[in-house]
Amino acid sequence: MKIIVAIKQVPDRDAQVRIDSSGKWIEESDIQYALNEPDAYALEEALQLKEKHGGEVVVLSAGPERVGTTIRETLAKGADRAISIACDDLGNRDALGVARLLAAAIRPENPDLILTGLQSEDLGLGQTGVIVAELLGLPHATLILHVEKSDSGLIVKRELEEGWFQTVELPTPAVLTMQSGGNKLRYATLMGIKRAKTKEVRQLVAADLGAESAPVVALEKVTLPQRQKSTQILTGTPKEAAAALVEKLKFEVRVL
Amino acid sequence: MSGILVVLESREGRIRGIGWEALAAGQLLGAQLSMLVGAAVLGADTEFLAAEATARVTGAVIRVEHPMLAQYTADGFKLALQQLIEKEGPAYVVLPHTYQVRDFAPALAARMGQVLVSDVVAIADGPVFTRQLLQGRLNGVYRPAGAGPCFVSVQAGAFRNAWSAEKHEGSSELCQGTTSVVPQIPQCEAGALAPGGSVSTAISVFAPTIDPAQIRTKPGEPFRAGAQTVDLGSAQLIVSVGRGIKEQDNIPLVQELATALGAELAASRPICDIGWLPMERQVGSSGQTVSPKLYLAVGISGAIQHLVGMKGSQCIVAINKDPDAPIFEVADYGIVGDLFEVVPALTEAVKAAKG
User: How far apart are alpha carbons A8 and A128 in whole angstroms?
Assistant: First the structure.
Protein backbone atom coordinates (compact mmCIF):
# COMPACT_ATOMS: atom_id res chain seq x y z
CA MET A 1 0.00 0.00 0.00
CA LYS A 2 1.36 3.39 -0.95
CA ILE A 3 0.29 5.91 1.66
CA ILE A 4 0.71 9.67 1.59
CA VAL A 5 0.52 11.44 4.94
CA ALA A 6 -0.18 15.17 4.72
CA ILE A 7 1.27 16.94 7.74
CA LYS A 8 1.41 20.48 9.04
CA GLN A 9 3.93 22.28 11.19
CA VAL A 10 2.16 24.38 13.81
CA PRO A 11 3.18 26.62 16.73
CA ASP A 12 4.12 24.52 19.74
CA ARG A 13 1.23 24.11 22.14
CA ASP A 14 3.06 25.90 24.94
CA ALA A 15 4.36 28.73 22.78
CA GLN A 16 3.55 32.20 24.10
CA VAL A 17 1.82 33.87 21.20
CA ARG A 18 1.79 37.59 20.47
CA ILE A 19 -0.18 39.33 17.75
CA ASP A 20 2.15 40.77 15.11
CA SER A 21 2.25 44.39 13.93
CA SER A 22 -0.03 43.69 10.95
CA GLY A 23 -2.72 42.50 13.34
CA LYS A 24 -3.39 39.64 10.97
CA TRP A 25 -1.31 36.85 12.50
CA ILE A 26 1.09 36.09 15.33
CA GLU A 27 4.72 37.05 15.75
CA GLU A 28 6.41 34.02 14.23
CA SER A 29 10.05 34.82 14.90
CA ASP A 30 10.12 33.96 18.59
CA ILE A 31 8.10 30.76 18.81
CA GLN A 32 8.84 27.06 18.60
CA TYR A 33 7.13 24.86 16.05
CA ALA A 34 6.03 21.25 16.25
CA LEU A 35 4.24 18.57 14.28
CA ASN A 36 0.45 19.03 14.44
CA GLU A 37 -0.68 16.33 16.86
CA PRO A 38 -3.55 14.81 14.86
CA ASP A 39 -1.08 14.53 11.95
CA ALA A 40 1.25 12.58 14.24
CA TYR A 41 -1.59 10.06 14.69
CA ALA A 42 -2.08 9.95 10.91
CA LEU A 43 1.61 9.18 10.50
CA GLU A 44 1.45 6.48 13.18
CA GLU A 45 -1.50 4.78 11.48
CA ALA A 46 0.35 4.89 8.14
CA LEU A 47 3.49 3.35 9.64
CA GLN A 48 1.48 0.58 11.27
CA LEU A 49 -0.37 -0.17 8.02
CA LYS A 50 2.97 -0.39 6.22
CA GLU A 51 4.34 -2.73 8.87
CA LYS A 52 1.33 -5.01 8.38
CA HIS A 53 0.86 -4.87 4.64
CA GLY A 54 4.11 -3.53 3.21
CA GLY A 55 4.35 -0.58 0.86
CA GLU A 56 5.59 2.94 1.24
CA VAL A 57 4.86 5.92 3.48
CA VAL A 58 5.41 9.32 1.87
CA VAL A 59 5.10 12.48 3.96
CA LEU A 60 3.80 15.63 2.30
CA SER A 61 3.91 19.15 3.70
CA ALA A 62 3.64 22.74 2.54
CA GLY A 63 5.11 25.79 4.19
CA PRO A 64 8.23 27.93 4.63
CA GLU A 65 11.75 26.58 5.10
CA ARG A 66 11.29 25.81 8.81
CA VAL A 67 8.92 22.97 7.88
CA GLY A 68 12.01 20.93 6.93
CA THR A 69 12.71 20.23 10.61
CA THR A 70 9.31 18.67 11.12
CA ILE A 71 9.61 16.66 7.90
CA ARG A 72 12.95 15.21 9.14
CA GLU A 73 11.24 14.27 12.36
CA THR A 74 8.64 12.19 10.48
CA LEU A 75 11.36 10.53 8.42
CA ALA A 76 13.16 9.67 11.65
CA LYS A 77 10.00 8.01 12.92
CA GLY A 78 9.92 5.78 9.86
CA ALA A 79 8.42 7.52 6.82
CA ASP A 80 10.27 6.43 3.65
CA ARG A 81 10.52 9.73 1.85
CA ALA A 82 8.95 13.17 1.74
CA ILE A 83 7.64 15.85 -0.57
CA SER A 84 8.06 19.42 0.59
CA ILE A 85 6.18 22.25 -1.09
CA ALA A 86 8.00 25.54 -0.56
CA CYS A 87 5.33 28.11 0.14
CA ASP A 88 5.91 31.36 2.01
CA ASP A 89 2.35 32.62 1.71
CA LEU A 90 0.57 29.62 3.20
CA GLY A 91 -1.25 31.87 5.66
CA ASN A 92 -2.77 33.92 2.82
CA ARG A 93 -4.33 30.87 1.23
CA ASP A 94 -7.66 29.59 2.44
CA ALA A 95 -8.45 25.90 3.00
CA LEU A 96 -9.28 25.41 -0.67
CA GLY A 97 -6.04 27.08 -1.76
CA VAL A 98 -3.94 24.86 0.51
CA ALA A 99 -5.83 21.73 -0.53
CA ARG A 100 -5.23 22.61 -4.19
CA LEU A 101 -1.48 22.70 -3.53
CA LEU A 102 -1.54 19.35 -1.78
CA ALA A 103 -3.78 17.73 -4.39
CA ALA A 104 -1.48 18.89 -7.19
CA ALA A 105 1.48 17.27 -5.45
CA ILE A 106 -0.45 14.06 -4.69
CA ARG A 107 -1.89 13.48 -8.18
CA PRO A 108 1.27 12.19 -9.94
CA GLU A 109 2.02 9.89 -6.98
CA ASN A 110 -1.16 7.81 -7.42
CA PRO A 111 -1.31 6.65 -3.79
CA ASP A 112 -3.69 3.98 -2.45
CA LEU A 113 -4.42 5.96 0.65
CA ILE A 114 -4.05 9.55 1.84
CA LEU A 115 -4.06 10.22 5.57
CA THR A 116 -4.03 13.50 7.45
CA GLY A 117 -5.00 14.77 10.89
CA LEU A 118 -8.63 15.80 11.36
CA GLN A 119 -7.63 19.41 12.02
CA SER A 120 -4.68 21.66 12.69
CA GLU A 121 -3.91 23.03 16.10
CA ASP A 122 -3.35 26.55 14.75
CA LEU A 123 -6.19 27.34 12.35
CA GLY A 124 -8.45 24.46 13.38
CA LEU A 125 -10.36 24.55 10.11
CA GLY A 126 -10.73 20.77 9.97
CA GLN A 127 -11.23 20.80 6.22
CA THR A 128 -8.02 20.13 4.35
CA GLY A 129 -8.38 16.35 4.05
CA VAL A 130 -12.01 16.51 2.98
CA ILE A 131 -11.30 19.12 0.30
CA VAL A 132 -8.28 17.16 -0.98
CA ALA A 133 -10.61 14.15 -1.42
CA GLU A 134 -13.09 16.30 -3.32
CA LEU A 135 -10.41 17.75 -5.60
CA LEU A 136 -8.99 14.29 -6.34
CA GLY A 137 -12.44 12.77 -6.82
CA LEU A 138 -11.84 10.22 -4.06
CA PRO A 139 -14.14 8.91 -1.31
CA HIS A 140 -13.28 10.00 2.21
CA ALA A 141 -14.12 9.44 5.85
CA THR A 142 -13.39 11.75 8.78
CA LEU A 143 -12.57 11.39 12.49
CA ILE A 144 -11.05 7.95 12.01
CA LEU A 145 -9.49 6.06 14.91
CA HIS A 146 -8.60 2.77 13.26
CA VAL A 147 -8.02 1.50 9.72
CA GLU A 148 -8.22 -2.07 8.47
CA LYS A 149 -7.54 -3.29 4.99
CA SER A 150 -10.30 -5.43 3.45
CA ASP A 151 -10.55 -7.32 0.15
CA SER A 152 -12.35 -4.48 -1.56
CA GLY A 153 -10.79 -1.50 0.21
CA LEU A 154 -10.91 -0.34 3.81
CA ILE A 155 -12.97 -0.79 6.94
CA VAL A 156 -12.49 2.16 9.29
CA LYS A 157 -13.68 3.02 12.79
CA ARG A 158 -15.19 6.50 12.80
CA GLU A 159 -15.84 8.55 15.92
CA LEU A 160 -19.28 10.08 16.33
CA GLU A 161 -20.28 12.53 19.03
CA GLU A 162 -20.80 11.78 22.73
CA GLY A 163 -18.95 8.49 22.88
CA TRP A 164 -20.51 6.79 19.86
CA PHE A 165 -18.69 5.16 16.95
CA GLN A 166 -19.49 3.55 13.62
CA THR A 167 -17.62 1.50 11.07
CA VAL A 168 -17.49 2.73 7.50
CA GLU A 169 -16.49 0.68 4.47
CA LEU A 170 -14.95 2.46 1.54
CA PRO A 171 -12.99 1.56 -1.58
CA THR A 172 -9.40 2.66 -2.22
CA PRO A 173 -7.91 4.97 -3.17
CA ALA A 174 -9.42 7.06 -0.39
CA VAL A 175 -8.69 9.94 1.96
CA LEU A 176 -9.03 9.57 5.74
CA THR A 177 -8.72 12.30 8.37
CA MET A 178 -7.44 10.82 11.60
CA GLN A 179 -8.64 11.55 15.11
CA SER A 180 -6.09 11.46 17.93
CA GLY A 181 -5.94 8.60 20.41
CA GLY A 182 -6.38 5.61 18.08
CA ASN A 183 -2.79 4.49 18.50
CA LYS A 184 0.15 5.03 20.78
CA LEU A 185 2.59 7.40 19.13
CA ARG A 186 6.14 6.19 18.58
CA TYR A 187 9.33 8.10 19.26
CA ALA A 188 12.15 8.38 16.78
CA THR A 189 15.03 6.02 17.56
CA LEU A 190 18.67 7.09 17.31
CA MET A 191 19.00 4.80 14.30
CA GLY A 192 15.90 6.39 12.80
CA ILE A 193 17.32 9.88 13.24
CA LYS A 194 20.54 8.78 11.53
CA ARG A 195 18.69 7.19 8.64
CA ALA A 196 16.44 10.19 8.16
CA LYS A 197 19.42 12.24 7.02
CA THR A 198 19.82 10.14 3.88
CA LYS A 199 16.13 9.85 2.97
CA GLU A 200 14.78 11.65 -0.06
CA VAL A 201 12.98 14.96 0.41
CA ARG A 202 11.70 16.16 -2.95
CA GLN A 203 11.39 19.93 -3.12
CA LEU A 204 8.49 21.43 -5.01
CA VAL A 205 7.65 25.10 -5.36
CA ALA A 206 4.09 26.28 -4.83
CA ALA A 207 4.15 28.53 -7.89
CA ASP A 208 5.02 25.57 -10.14
CA LEU A 209 2.02 23.53 -9.08
CA GLY A 210 -0.43 25.76 -10.90
CA ALA A 211 -2.79 25.89 -7.96
CA GLU A 212 -4.96 28.97 -7.74
CA SER A 213 -4.18 30.93 -4.59
CA ALA A 214 -6.68 33.81 -4.47
CA PRO A 215 -8.72 33.25 -1.29
CA VAL A 216 -12.51 33.02 -1.24
CA VAL A 217 -12.41 33.77 2.48
CA ALA A 218 -9.81 36.04 4.02
CA LEU A 219 -8.58 36.28 7.59
CA GLU A 220 -8.98 39.99 8.17
CA LYS A 221 -7.54 40.35 11.65
CA VAL A 222 -6.78 38.46 14.83
CA THR A 223 -7.80 39.63 18.29
CA LEU A 224 -7.49 38.48 21.87
CA PRO A 225 -10.68 36.76 23.00
CA GLN A 226 -12.86 38.60 25.47
CA ARG A 227 -13.38 36.87 28.75
CA GLN A 228 -16.85 35.39 29.00
CA LYS A 229 -16.85 35.68 32.76
CA SER A 230 -15.00 37.91 35.16
CA THR A 231 -12.60 35.46 36.66
CA GLN A 232 -11.58 36.10 40.24
CA ILE A 233 -7.91 35.18 40.48
CA LEU A 234 -6.91 33.95 43.93
CA THR A 235 -3.38 35.00 44.71
CA GLY A 236 -0.76 34.31 47.35
CA THR A 237 1.31 31.25 48.13
CA PRO A 238 -0.17 27.90 47.07
CA LYS A 239 -1.35 27.44 50.64
CA GLU A 240 -2.97 30.89 50.82
CA ALA A 241 -4.63 30.49 47.41
CA ALA A 242 -5.93 27.05 48.41
CA ALA A 243 -7.35 28.44 51.65
CA ALA A 244 -9.02 31.29 49.78
CA LEU A 245 -10.55 28.85 47.31
CA VAL A 246 -11.90 26.64 50.09
CA GLU A 247 -13.60 29.73 51.58
CA LYS A 248 -15.26 30.40 48.21
CA LEU A 249 -16.31 26.78 47.80
CA LYS A 250 -17.78 26.79 51.28
CA PHE A 251 -19.59 30.12 51.43
CA GLU A 252 -20.26 31.14 47.84
CA VAL A 253 -20.43 28.00 45.73
CA ARG A 254 -21.72 26.08 48.75
CA VAL A 255 -20.35 22.69 47.80
CA LEU A 256 -18.38 22.00 50.98
CA MET B 1 -35.34 31.81 -2.47
CA SER B 2 -32.28 33.94 -2.38
CA GLY B 3 -31.51 34.86 1.19
CA ILE B 4 -30.31 32.45 3.81
CA LEU B 5 -30.63 28.68 3.83
CA VAL B 6 -30.19 26.89 7.16
CA VAL B 7 -29.50 23.16 6.97
CA LEU B 8 -31.11 21.60 10.04
CA GLU B 9 -29.55 18.40 11.33
CA SER B 10 -31.67 15.59 12.70
CA ARG B 11 -31.06 12.57 14.85
CA GLU B 12 -33.56 9.79 15.43
CA GLY B 13 -36.27 11.67 13.61
CA ARG B 14 -35.93 14.92 15.57
CA ILE B 15 -34.17 18.15 14.77
CA ARG B 16 -31.11 18.45 17.00
CA GLY B 17 -30.67 21.34 19.42
CA ILE B 18 -27.58 22.46 17.56
CA GLY B 19 -29.72 22.62 14.43
CA TRP B 20 -31.90 25.23 16.16
CA GLU B 21 -28.75 27.09 17.16
CA ALA B 22 -27.75 27.22 13.48
CA LEU B 23 -31.22 28.57 12.77
CA ALA B 24 -30.73 31.27 15.42
CA ALA B 25 -27.43 32.20 13.76
CA GLY B 26 -29.14 32.26 10.38
CA GLN B 27 -31.85 34.53 11.74
CA LEU B 28 -29.26 36.85 13.24
CA LEU B 29 -27.64 37.08 9.83
CA GLY B 30 -31.06 37.51 8.22
CA ALA B 31 -31.88 40.44 10.50
CA GLN B 32 -28.54 42.07 9.71
CA LEU B 33 -28.89 41.72 5.98
CA SER B 34 -32.68 41.98 5.74
CA MET B 35 -32.83 38.59 4.12
CA LEU B 36 -35.39 35.83 4.37
CA VAL B 37 -34.38 32.72 6.28
CA GLY B 38 -35.47 29.33 5.03
CA ALA B 39 -34.45 25.88 6.13
CA ALA B 40 -33.84 22.44 4.68
CA VAL B 41 -34.32 19.05 6.29
CA LEU B 42 -32.82 15.94 4.69
CA GLY B 43 -33.83 12.30 4.79
CA ALA B 44 -35.84 9.52 3.22
CA ASP B 45 -39.01 10.68 4.97
CA THR B 46 -38.96 14.20 6.32
CA GLU B 47 -42.62 14.92 7.03
CA PHE B 48 -42.22 15.14 10.82
CA LEU B 49 -38.96 17.05 10.58
CA ALA B 50 -40.57 19.60 8.28
CA ALA B 51 -43.54 19.96 10.62
CA GLU B 52 -41.14 20.49 13.51
CA ALA B 53 -39.21 23.07 11.49
CA THR B 54 -42.22 25.15 10.45
CA ALA B 55 -42.81 26.12 14.06
CA ARG B 56 -39.59 28.10 14.12
CA VAL B 57 -38.59 28.86 10.57
CA THR B 58 -40.07 32.08 9.23
CA GLY B 59 -39.26 31.44 5.57
CA ALA B 60 -39.74 28.38 3.43
CA VAL B 61 -39.06 24.87 4.71
CA ILE B 62 -37.73 22.49 2.10
CA ARG B 63 -37.98 18.74 2.48
CA VAL B 64 -34.98 17.27 0.68
CA GLU B 65 -36.10 13.71 0.21
CA HIS B 66 -34.53 10.66 -1.38
CA PRO B 67 -34.33 6.99 -0.33
CA MET B 68 -30.52 7.28 -0.49
CA LEU B 69 -30.65 9.92 2.26
CA ALA B 70 -32.13 7.50 4.82
CA GLN B 71 -28.69 7.10 6.33
CA TYR B 72 -26.11 9.85 6.30
CA THR B 73 -23.30 9.58 3.76
CA ALA B 74 -21.04 12.43 2.69
CA ASP B 75 -21.66 11.64 -0.99
CA GLY B 76 -25.45 11.61 -0.61
CA PHE B 77 -25.64 14.85 1.38
CA LYS B 78 -23.16 16.57 -0.92
CA LEU B 79 -25.12 15.68 -4.06
CA ALA B 80 -28.50 16.54 -2.59
CA LEU B 81 -27.44 19.89 -1.15
CA GLN B 82 -25.47 20.92 -4.20
CA GLN B 83 -28.55 20.42 -6.37
CA LEU B 84 -30.73 22.27 -3.88
CA ILE B 85 -28.33 25.20 -3.59
CA GLU B 86 -27.93 25.48 -7.35
CA LYS B 87 -31.69 25.60 -7.72
CA GLU B 88 -32.45 27.99 -4.85
CA GLY B 89 -29.37 30.19 -5.09
CA PRO B 90 -29.09 31.28 -1.45
CA ALA B 91 -26.54 33.96 -0.59
CA TYR B 92 -25.66 32.17 2.66
CA VAL B 93 -25.82 28.55 3.74
CA VAL B 94 -25.69 28.15 7.53
CA LEU B 95 -25.01 24.77 9.15
CA PRO B 96 -24.34 23.52 12.68
CA HIS B 97 -20.66 22.59 13.21
CA THR B 98 -21.29 18.93 13.98
CA TYR B 99 -19.20 15.88 13.14
CA GLN B 100 -21.60 15.23 10.27
CA VAL B 101 -21.25 18.72 8.82
CA ARG B 102 -17.47 18.54 9.19
CA ASP B 103 -17.63 15.37 7.11
CA PHE B 104 -19.43 16.76 4.05
CA ALA B 105 -19.64 20.57 4.11
CA PRO B 106 -15.98 21.33 3.23
CA ALA B 107 -16.34 19.14 0.12
CA LEU B 108 -19.73 20.62 -0.76
CA ALA B 109 -18.31 24.13 -0.57
CA ALA B 110 -15.19 23.18 -2.55
CA ARG B 111 -17.33 21.56 -5.23
CA MET B 112 -19.01 24.95 -5.70
CA GLY B 113 -15.69 26.84 -5.65
CA GLN B 114 -16.37 28.07 -2.11
CA VAL B 115 -14.78 27.67 1.32
CA LEU B 116 -16.70 26.82 4.46
CA VAL B 117 -16.16 29.33 7.26
CA SER B 118 -16.14 26.67 9.95
CA ASP B 119 -16.83 26.65 13.69
CA VAL B 120 -18.02 30.26 13.84
CA VAL B 121 -18.64 31.76 17.29
CA ALA B 122 -19.88 35.25 16.37
CA ILE B 123 -21.35 37.14 13.43
CA ALA B 124 -20.90 40.92 13.11
CA ASP B 125 -21.84 43.59 10.61
CA GLY B 126 -20.29 43.13 7.20
CA PRO B 127 -20.96 40.37 7.67
CA VAL B 128 -17.74 39.15 9.21
CA PHE B 129 -17.42 35.86 11.03
CA THR B 130 -15.35 35.20 14.13
CA ARG B 131 -13.76 31.80 14.70
CA GLN B 132 -11.24 30.65 17.25
CA LEU B 133 -7.56 30.11 16.46
CA LEU B 134 -4.72 28.34 18.27
CA GLN B 135 -7.05 26.28 20.43
CA GLY B 136 -8.98 29.30 21.60
CA ARG B 137 -6.03 31.53 22.47
CA LEU B 138 -6.92 33.98 19.69
CA ASN B 139 -9.95 34.93 17.66
CA GLY B 140 -9.79 35.37 13.91
CA VAL B 141 -12.19 37.60 11.99
CA TYR B 142 -13.00 36.29 8.51
CA ARG B 143 -14.55 38.10 5.59
CA PRO B 144 -15.91 36.22 2.61
CA ALA B 145 -14.42 37.73 -0.52
CA GLY B 146 -15.93 35.64 -3.26
CA ALA B 147 -19.16 35.70 -5.15
CA GLY B 148 -21.55 32.81 -4.80
CA PRO B 149 -23.06 31.15 -1.77
CA CYS B 150 -21.14 31.68 1.46
CA PHE B 151 -21.00 28.56 3.64
CA VAL B 152 -20.87 29.02 7.42
CA SER B 153 -20.94 26.43 10.21
CA VAL B 154 -21.59 27.56 13.78
CA GLN B 155 -20.06 26.22 16.99
CA ALA B 156 -22.23 24.36 19.49
CA GLY B 157 -23.30 26.75 22.24
CA ALA B 158 -22.18 29.94 20.53
CA PHE B 159 -25.70 30.91 19.48
CA ARG B 160 -27.54 29.05 22.20
CA ASN B 161 -28.49 32.24 23.99
CA ALA B 162 -29.92 33.70 20.81
CA TRP B 163 -31.86 30.48 20.49
CA SER B 164 -33.18 30.27 24.03
CA ALA B 165 -34.07 33.97 24.22
CA GLU B 166 -36.27 33.37 21.26
CA LYS B 167 -37.48 30.08 22.66
CA HIS B 168 -38.95 31.75 25.72
CA GLU B 169 -41.13 33.90 23.50
CA GLY B 170 -42.84 30.76 22.27
CA SER B 171 -45.60 29.69 24.58
CA SER B 172 -45.72 25.98 24.06
CA GLU B 173 -43.03 23.45 24.85
CA LEU B 174 -44.57 21.36 22.14
CA CYS B 175 -43.17 23.47 19.40
CA GLN B 176 -39.60 23.80 20.54
CA GLY B 177 -38.20 20.64 19.18
CA THR B 178 -36.31 19.78 22.34
CA THR B 179 -38.99 17.72 24.00
CA SER B 180 -39.75 14.17 23.06
CA VAL B 181 -43.33 14.96 22.19
CA VAL B 182 -44.32 14.41 18.59
CA PRO B 183 -44.85 17.85 17.13
CA GLN B 184 -48.41 18.78 16.29
CA ILE B 185 -47.53 21.50 13.95
CA PRO B 186 -48.14 23.63 11.95
CA GLN B 187 -51.61 24.14 13.40
CA CYS B 188 -50.54 24.76 16.96
CA GLU B 189 -48.02 27.50 17.50
CA ALA B 190 -46.50 28.45 14.21
CA GLY B 191 -47.65 32.02 14.60
CA ALA B 192 -46.40 32.42 18.14
CA LEU B 193 -42.79 32.60 17.08
CA ALA B 194 -43.16 35.29 14.51
CA PRO B 195 -44.35 38.70 15.70
CA GLY B 196 -47.72 39.54 14.28
CA GLY B 197 -48.55 35.93 13.64
CA SER B 198 -48.13 36.56 9.95
CA VAL B 199 -46.34 33.33 9.35
CA SER B 200 -47.35 31.35 6.34
CA THR B 201 -44.52 28.90 6.29
CA ALA B 202 -44.49 27.10 3.00
CA ILE B 203 -43.32 23.52 2.93
CA SER B 204 -42.03 22.20 -0.34
CA VAL B 205 -40.44 18.94 -1.38
CA PHE B 206 -37.20 18.78 -3.31
CA ALA B 207 -36.24 15.44 -4.83
CA PRO B 208 -32.54 15.36 -5.70
CA THR B 209 -31.17 13.01 -8.34
CA ILE B 210 -28.87 10.49 -6.70
CA ASP B 211 -27.62 7.35 -8.41
CA PRO B 212 -26.82 4.63 -5.83
CA ALA B 213 -23.47 4.14 -7.58
CA GLN B 214 -22.53 7.69 -6.56
CA ILE B 215 -22.55 6.69 -2.87
CA ARG B 216 -19.06 5.32 -2.40
CA THR B 217 -18.97 4.75 1.34
CA LYS B 218 -20.99 2.20 3.30
CA PRO B 219 -21.72 3.39 6.84
CA GLY B 220 -22.46 0.98 9.69
CA GLU B 221 -24.89 1.45 12.58
CA PRO B 222 -23.63 3.60 15.47
CA PHE B 223 -22.36 1.71 18.50
CA ARG B 224 -20.89 2.50 21.90
CA ALA B 225 -17.58 1.06 22.98
CA GLY B 226 -18.27 -1.20 25.95
CA ALA B 227 -20.54 -0.52 28.88
CA GLN B 228 -20.52 2.99 30.29
CA THR B 229 -19.94 2.72 34.00
CA VAL B 230 -19.28 6.37 34.75
CA ASP B 231 -22.09 8.87 34.37
CA LEU B 232 -20.34 12.20 34.60
CA GLY B 233 -23.50 13.91 33.39
CA SER B 234 -25.21 13.45 36.75
CA ALA B 235 -22.17 14.26 38.92
CA GLN B 236 -22.55 17.33 41.14
CA LEU B 237 -18.83 17.85 41.60
CA ILE B 238 -16.14 17.10 39.05
CA VAL B 239 -12.37 17.39 39.29
CA SER B 240 -10.89 17.22 35.81
CA VAL B 241 -7.28 16.78 34.81
CA GLY B 242 -5.37 17.77 31.66
CA ARG B 243 -1.94 17.70 30.06
CA GLY B 244 -0.45 19.78 32.85
CA ILE B 245 -0.29 16.65 35.01
CA LYS B 246 2.70 15.59 32.86
CA GLU B 247 2.93 11.91 33.88
CA GLN B 248 0.60 9.05 34.64
CA ASP B 249 2.25 8.63 38.04
CA ASN B 250 0.93 12.06 38.99
CA ILE B 251 -2.73 11.19 38.46
CA PRO B 252 -3.22 10.07 42.12
CA LEU B 253 -2.47 13.66 43.16
CA VAL B 254 -5.67 14.78 41.46
CA GLN B 255 -7.57 11.65 42.48
CA GLU B 256 -6.86 12.53 46.11
CA LEU B 257 -8.34 15.99 45.62
CA ALA B 258 -11.42 14.46 43.98
CA THR B 259 -11.81 12.00 46.84
CA ALA B 260 -11.45 14.75 49.45
CA LEU B 261 -14.17 16.77 47.71
CA GLY B 262 -16.36 13.74 47.05
CA ALA B 263 -16.10 14.52 43.34
CA GLU B 264 -15.92 12.39 40.20
CA LEU B 265 -12.59 12.37 38.39
CA ALA B 266 -12.68 13.41 34.74
CA ALA B 267 -10.14 14.39 32.09
CA SER B 268 -9.54 16.26 28.87
CA ARG B 269 -9.08 14.27 25.69
CA PRO B 270 -5.26 14.02 25.62
CA ILE B 271 -5.23 12.25 28.99
CA CYS B 272 -7.65 9.61 27.69
CA ASP B 273 -5.85 9.38 24.33
CA ILE B 274 -2.64 8.36 26.10
CA GLY B 275 -4.63 5.92 28.21
CA TRP B 276 -3.93 7.48 31.63
CA LEU B 277 -7.66 7.51 32.35
CA PRO B 278 -10.39 5.54 30.55
CA MET B 279 -12.21 7.18 27.60
CA GLU B 280 -15.48 7.20 29.55
CA ARG B 281 -14.03 9.85 31.86
CA GLN B 282 -13.46 12.23 28.99
CA VAL B 283 -15.26 15.58 28.97
CA GLY B 284 -15.64 17.45 25.69
CA SER B 285 -17.16 17.28 22.23
CA SER B 286 -16.06 13.70 21.72
CA GLY B 287 -16.77 12.66 25.31
CA GLN B 288 -19.41 13.62 27.83
CA THR B 289 -21.09 16.98 28.26
CA VAL B 290 -21.36 17.97 31.90
CA SER B 291 -22.88 20.80 33.91
CA PRO B 292 -22.08 20.10 37.57
CA LYS B 293 -22.27 22.57 40.45
CA LEU B 294 -18.49 22.63 40.53
CA TYR B 295 -16.04 21.89 37.74
CA LEU B 296 -12.47 22.11 38.94
CA ALA B 297 -10.05 22.03 36.00
CA VAL B 298 -6.49 21.08 36.88
CA GLY B 299 -3.76 21.63 34.27
CA ILE B 300 -6.32 21.98 31.47
CA SER B 301 -5.56 24.75 28.98
CA GLY B 302 -9.13 24.84 27.69
CA ALA B 303 -9.15 23.84 24.03
CA ILE B 304 -12.45 24.52 22.27
CA GLN B 305 -13.32 20.83 22.17
CA HIS B 306 -13.02 20.65 25.94
CA LEU B 307 -14.86 23.90 26.72
CA VAL B 308 -17.85 22.77 24.67
CA GLY B 309 -18.30 19.90 27.11
CA MET B 310 -18.11 21.84 30.40
CA LYS B 311 -18.79 25.54 30.02
CA GLY B 312 -22.37 25.05 31.20
CA SER B 313 -21.07 24.19 34.69
CA GLN B 314 -22.45 26.39 37.49
CA CYS B 315 -19.03 27.18 38.92
CA ILE B 316 -15.75 26.68 37.12
CA VAL B 317 -12.42 26.76 38.94
CA ALA B 318 -9.17 26.60 37.00
CA ILE B 319 -5.70 25.82 38.25
CA ASN B 320 -3.10 26.45 35.57
CA LYS B 321 0.44 27.78 35.33
CA ASP B 322 -0.33 29.81 32.18
CA PRO B 323 -2.29 32.99 32.98
CA ASP B 324 -3.26 33.27 29.30
CA ALA B 325 -4.76 29.76 29.11
CA PRO B 326 -8.24 29.92 27.52
CA ILE B 327 -9.70 28.02 30.49
CA PHE B 328 -9.52 31.28 32.47
CA GLU B 329 -11.92 32.85 29.98
CA VAL B 330 -14.72 30.70 31.31
CA ALA B 331 -13.55 30.29 34.92
CA ASP B 332 -15.26 31.91 37.91
CA TYR B 333 -12.21 31.41 40.11
CA GLY B 334 -8.65 30.87 39.07
CA ILE B 335 -5.34 30.04 40.66
CA VAL B 336 -2.33 30.78 38.49
CA GLY B 337 0.40 28.50 39.71
CA ASP B 338 2.16 25.17 39.74
CA LEU B 339 -0.47 22.48 40.13
CA PHE B 340 2.05 20.25 41.89
CA GLU B 341 2.11 22.79 44.72
CA VAL B 342 -1.46 24.06 44.58
CA VAL B 343 -3.31 20.73 44.37
CA PRO B 344 -1.78 19.10 47.49
CA ALA B 345 -2.37 22.34 49.42
CA LEU B 346 -5.97 22.40 48.24
CA THR B 347 -6.53 18.75 49.16
CA GLU B 348 -5.27 19.49 52.68
CA ALA B 349 -7.44 22.60 52.97
CA VAL B 350 -10.54 20.72 51.80
CA LYS B 351 -9.90 17.91 54.28
CA ALA B 352 -9.45 20.43 57.07
CA ALA B 353 -12.65 22.28 56.11
CA LYS B 354 -14.61 19.05 56.08
CA GLY B 355 -13.15 18.18 59.47
Answer: 11
CA distance B58 to B31: 12
Residue B223 located in a structural domain: no
**Listed residues B214, B247, B273: the one ending a domain:** B214
Is B333 close to A221, i.e. CB distance below 8 A? no
Question: What global pTM score does this model have?
Answer: 0.88
Give the chain A residue nearest B321 (alpha carbons).
Answer: A14
Question: Which H or E element spans position B220?
Answer: none
Quick check: B237 contacting A, CB < 8 Å?
Answer: yes
pLDDT tens across B40-62, in order?
999 999 999 999 999 999 899 99
Within a domain: B139? yes
Q: How many structural domains are present in chain B?
A: 2
> Chain B 285-314, CB below 8 Å of chain A: which residues?
285-289, 293-294, 301, 304, 311, 314
Residue A66 sits at φ, ψ, to 5 deg, of -55, -20
Instruction: Check CB contact of B162 with chain A, cutoff 8 Å.
Output: no
> What is the sign of the dihedral through the CA atoms of B167, B171, B176 and B178?
positive
ipTM of the complex: 0.93
What is the SS3 assignment for A63?
A: strand
Task: Show the domain range for B341.
Answer: 232-354
Q: Is residue B35 part of a domain?
A: yes
